[in-house]
Each structure stands twice: as C-alpha cells, then as structure tokens.
From TrEMBL:
It holds the Pfam family AAA_30. Coiled coil: none annotated. The keyword Nucleotide-binding applies. It comes from Candidatus Spyradosoma merdigallinarum. InterPro entries: Coronavir_polyprotein_1ab (IPR050534), P-loop_NTPase (IPR027417), RecD (IPR006344), UvrD-like_helicase_C (IPR027785). SUPFAM superfamilies: P-loop containing nucleoside triphosphate hydrolases (SSF52540). PANTHER family: DNA HELICASE B (PTHR43788:SF6), DNA2/NAM7 HELICASE FAMILY MEMBER (PTHR43788). Its EC number is 3.1.11.5. Transmembrane segments: none annotated. GO terms for biological process: DNA recombination; double-strand break repair. GO terms for molecular function: ATP binding; exodeoxyribonuclease V activity; single-stranded DNA helicase activity. Residues 505-549 form the UvrD-like helicase C-terminal domain. This is Exodeoxyribonuclease V subunit alpha.
Length: 594
C-alpha cells in the first residue's frame, strides 16, 4: 500500500518519463551523440522523480559515481553544455534546461535553481538591513504586564517583528506566537495608524485561525478597556488590529498585480513551515522593497508538501541568526504532563524516553490521554471512531444548529500518516460514513450530518482548500446544504451541487492537519508495512506534528493514540531527510534573468 493515491504515482511517473523523453530530444536537436542523449535522459528522469516524489528541489549526486562524472563532462563540453549549465554559466546569463552544481553535488532544473538563488538573495538582503528604532511608546506596549505579561523571549520576538526588516519566529504549540504578534501589531499601528499590514497563511484553515486568534485577543482587550480598565494600547491601534483579515498566501499573491505586487508595509505569514520553494519565491518577488517580512512557524513540524524545505533552512542558517527568535516556553503542554513530555522526547529523537512515557501511561486510567497498542484491526478502528465522535456528531439531529454543529466538528478529528490503504484517510472516512450516516444513505455522496473539507480553491464561491463545512438537510425544503464559516465569523450556506472538489472530513492526513487544533483527537500510527516501500516516510517530525494538534479544552477533551510500537519508536529515531541547499549557492542571479 502506498502513502498516496495510485493515480498520483502514475501521474508522477508519466511526468518523469515525458521530461526524460523531451530531454533526449532536446539533446539530439543540439547535436549530442545518441549515447549522451540517452544518458542525460536517464539522469533527468531521476531528477524529476526526486522533485515530484521526495519534495526536493534537486537531485543529490555521489561524486564517485558515473552520473556525476558524466555531468561534469556534459557541463564542460559542447554541445551538451547547452543542456546542462553550471552556476557560472547561470551567473553569466545563460539559459540552460539543467544546472549542474558540482560544488554541492546537485543537479537542478533551471527553474528551481533560479528560485533558490533569488529567494536566498532576497532573504539575505532583508536580514542585512538595519532595524527601525523602537520608540518609547513601543517599549511601553512591549513591557505592559496587562492583560498578561510577556516572557523575555516573547519580548525579543515582539521587538523584532515590530522593527526588523526580517523577523523569523519559531515556536511550538502554546509558546505564544499569536500573543506576541498582537503586541507587535499594536506597536506598528501605534507608530503608524495607516500602516498597510497583510496577514497570510498557506491554507484557508490556518488563515482563519490566524484572524480569529488575533481578533479574539484584541476584542477582549478593547472590551475591557471600554469597561474602564487601563492599558497602554491606543484604542485606534486595537480597532485597526481587530479589522485585519488574514488571507491564504495564494490568494494574497493572486490579488496582487505586477512585481513587486503586494501593497504592504509589513507582511506576516503564519505556519511558514508549510511554504514550499515555489511559493516562497513568489512571495519574495512580490514583496515591496521597503516592506518588512515576518515568518511565524514551528521548525520541528513537517516540511512543506511541495519541493524545498524553506522554513527549516532559514531556521538553520547561521548567517540569519540576528533575524531569528526561538520560543521554548509552552503554556499548552506542561513539561511534566504526559503530552508535553512525549512531544519533548519525540523532538529530541529520544526513543528510550518515548518508550518509557508510553509504558508509564499505558497502565494508568488517565481520562484525557489514552493509548492503544492493540493490533490495528477493522474492529479496533470502528471502536476508535465511536469513542472519538460524541453522540451529537454520530447522529446529528434533524433540527441541528449549523453553527454549533460546525464548531463541534471543527474540534474533532482522526489523523493518519497515510492517504491510501486500510489505515489511510480515504478508508477511515469511508468507515466513518458507514458508521454515522443515516440508514440507507451510506452510499450517497452527501448526507445529513456529514463533515466535509474543501480540496480545491474556488474563489467565486469564496471557498478555499482546507475550509471545513457540515452538510445539513433543510427541514423546509428537504435539500442538502453545506454550511461554512465565513470571513467575519458568519455561517454561509451553499447547496451541495455548487461545491468545488471536496471530501469527507472525519479523518485526514497529518500533513493536511498542519495549522489546525482539536480538543478530541485520535492519532493513528500504523505499522511501517502499511506504507509499502515508503517506510522512511514515518519520521519524528510526522509524529510530533500529529500529537501537537491536540489542544486541551472544550467539552470532554480526549487524546487517543493508536500505534504500532516498533514503527513509532523507529520514527522517533528517524529525522525527515532535508537536503536543502537554499543558502549554499554562490552564483548571483544576473539582471538579465530577473
């Protein structure tokens, strides 16, 4: 069984084969010998498969191997050097389909090499600029103890976000990224009430949470201030902050025109670990010369689904140390609590400590945190779904309130590493449909009480990838209507026939859950054999991302972990392979290619 749909693998294989054939034809047209054209085509197929399947921007080569020697020759001699260029030829303005970087033992498609060079240049240039001065008013806002004091590391982050051309803040769940962002926004608006600020995130769900979290805190302070409490925050700055609406990064860039295109004094991007190289490159090109850039994320989470490991590379780059702040104090997970200790052990790659925590917890009657090391059978999966989803969601009443039902579904989810196979998201959703759909409707595409998630952006309907909805039957007409949360918190109703591509949302992949939080959460970590040949897919980043989606609160919180011990502990030992060369390039992009 595979980690993705079979047709996706087929599409990737077909794309790699097509690129291979096109490369061979291009080489022949350039006058290359048939043997050289075929050798180059084979290497390009490997490159394409690596970019598509392994989420890398390049193919790493071994200097002692045949491919490396062939590319060294190809990049040095005509006519092959018309196909495979070098960093030097790139810097001179040459256009070649491939770039062979012998110094880093890597082969690139031209587009990805150019994106990496330009992205690294822009980020490095931003980091080299001096920060703006911090005024007395800003200091007063930063140091304020009410409504709650900031930690010293949060204060450092606020100063950076409010004044530095580039601010990179990494922190796990509960470390206060939203809290410090609010203070920084108040600092900015206190200095310039007309400042243009863009809030963005890679997915619709993450953008919605960003807006909601900032607005909720600002509204609370404003309400208390109007009731007579004293805060050093200008009312106008609070109102401006409340009015900010986060967008998906794709939407923000699509709304823009030209290069640079974003009309902003400051661009703040949350969940930055989800940004792949092509999207980061688009952001860098669209950023105005005098605009500040703020990247918020968690370096320990999964990397982007697309090629490139941008946020991790930025956090690891020593030359950017002055632009980075790491938050380590979490208010969500106590260091002595079960989940806090488990998350810490996983991040450290400490399999022994992880095993000890699992063993210590397995024998307890802890009401919130539960473990199941039983063999993952169909019967066990059914039992987990029935335990996870409360009766109100298993059998949604005919007169259910759309807002209340949607809020309940937003707080409950089963997560799995896989998409396909018996323990994948598709099969789990099918299993939940059979368990929870009204009698006689389990084969229907839609049914009353069905949670759904949008899989493709539809701007006309104002629905975006990751938006969660719930299907309810209108009592008056009997028609099925999907209800979604609108931009201002209102509930929008859309007939199911008008919905863009979507799927059931009882279960989802861990990748798709990034940026979300659930108070009732089941995490499935099956045997490695369920992933077929992709056993290295399981990593500590994958497990850490899954368990930190839990947020204790609300009614009857529950964290349920169904796991295969051998695979879970092996995953803790395995770090996601990240071969980013983002800041390893010496070639500068010539003006002719910009």
């Amino acid at each position: 069984m595979n980690t993705t749909e079979p047709n996706q693998h087929a599409q990737r294989s077909a794309a790699a084969a097509w690129l291979s054939e096109e490369t061979a034809a291009l080489a022949r047209d350039a006058g290359c010998a048939e043997s050289d054209a075929e050798a180059l085509a084979k290497i390009v197929r490997k490159l394409a498969e690596t970019v598509c399947g392994n989420r890398e921007t390049h193919l790493r080569l071994v200097p002692a191997r045949e491919d490396f020697a062939f590319l060294e020759k190809a990049a040095a001699e005509p006519p092959l050097n018309r196909i495979a260029g070098t960093p030097a030829s790139y810097a001179a303005g040459a256009l070649t389909p491939l770039i062979f970087d012998a110094g880093n033992a890597a082969l690139y498609f031209f587009r990805h090499y150019r994106q990496e060079c330009e992205t690294a240049e822009k980020i490095s240039a931003l980091a080299a600029l001096p920060p703006a001065s911090v005024s007395e008013k800003m200091r007063e806002i930063i140091e304020a103890d009410a409504p709650f004091p900031l930690s010293e590391e949060q204060k450092r982050a606020v100063r950076a976000v409010a004044s530095a051309p580039l601010a990179v803040v990494s922190g796990g769940p509960g470390t206060g990224k939203t809290t410090l962002l609010l203070r920084a926004l108040l600092c900015i608006f206190s200095e310039n009430p007309d400042a243009e600020i863009i809030l963005a995130a890679p997915t619709g769900k993450a953008a919605s949470r960003m807006s909601e979290s900032v607005r909720k805190q600002a509204d609370e302070i404003l309400r208390r201030a109007e009731a007579g409490e004293s805060f050093p925050f200008p009312r106008r700055a609070l109102r401006k902050t409340c009015a900010l609406e986060a967008r998906t990064l794709h939407r923000a860039l699509a709304d823009a025109r030209g290069v640079p295109a974003l009309e902003a004094d400051c661009v703040v991007v949350d969940e930055a670990s989800m940004i792949d190289q092509p999207l980061m490159h688009r952001l860098m090109r669209a950023l105005p010369p005098r605009a500040r850039l703020v990247l918020l994320g968690d370096k320990n989470q999964l990397d982007s689904v697309g090629p490139g490991h941008v946020f991790g590379a930025i956090c690891a780059e020593e030359k950017l140390s002055g632009a980075k702040t790491e938050l380590t104090e979490s208010r969500r997970f106590s260091e002595t609590g079960t989940l806090g200790r488990l998350a810490g052990a996983v991040v450290r790659g400490d399999a022994r400590a992880t095993a000890e925590i699992l063993d210590a917890t397995a024998g307890t009657a802890e009401s919130v945190f539960r473990l199941s090391e039983e063999k993952i059978t169909p019967e066990r999966l059914d039992a987990a779904l029935l335990e996870l989803f409360p009766e109100k969601l298993r059998r949604v009443s005919a007169d259910a309130d759309p807002r209340e039902t949607l809020e309940l579904f937003e707080s409950v989810r089963m997560l799995t590493p896989l998409r396909g196979g018996e323990t994948g998201a598709d099969a789990l959703n099918a299993r939940a449909r059979r368990l929870f759909s009204p009698p006689g409707s389990d084969a229907a595409e839609h049914f009353h009480g069905q949670p759904i998630i949008i899989a493709r952006n539809a701007r006309q309907e104002q629905l975006f990838n990751g938006d969660l909805g719930v299907v309810l039957r209108e009592r008056r007409t009997g028609t099925l209507v999907a209800h979604f949360r609108g931009g201002n918190g209102e509930i929008r109703a859309i007939p199911v026939g008008l919905l863009p591509e979507h799927e059931s949302a009882y279960a989802m992949s861990i990748h798709k859950a990034q940026g979300s939080e659930f108070s009732r959460l089941a995490v499935l970590f099956p045997p490695a054999s369920d992933a077929g040949t992709h056993t290295d897919f399981f990593s500590r980043q994958l497990l850490y991302t899954a368990i930190t989606r839990f947020r204790e609160g609300g009614n009857a919180p529950l964290f349920l972990l169904l796991f295969d011990r051998e695979n879970l502990l092996e995953a803790v030992r395995r770090e996601s392979a990240s071969n980013s060369l983002l800041f390893a390039h010496t070639a500068q992009t010539p003006n002719s290619l910009r």
